[in-house]
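pinned: reference chain
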Amino acid sequence: MAEMSVQLVAVERRLWSGTGSFVVAQTTEGEIGILPGHEPVLGQLVEGGVVKIRTTDGETVTAAVFGGFLSVTADAVSILAESAELSTEIDVAQARSDLQHADTEERTRAAARLRAVGQTA
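pinned: its structure tokens
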């Protein structure tokens, strides 16, 4: 199986790093899927997007991301987010509350959190 090095990093911490077989991210140009050997590319991540990493172990790492960049080389993908949360760390009840009661920016973040955990906003 072909693999690539993948890093998911936010300003405040590294969320995940390891080897992956597939990465999906939402950029300002649209959703992009990355396989090992992809042509080099640099993309701007959308505010309130979701990134999914398929690991070489067959697991899926999902995160809500808020701005930043995606950098791809032939054998590596770096997701450099301004802020990000792994789906396993998201408080669904808080996200639902924020979706209904927060300002516009927080509603965007709440919707991304809910999409990251597989729920609709």
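why pinned: Helices lie at 92-101, 104-116. The radius of gyration is 14 Å.
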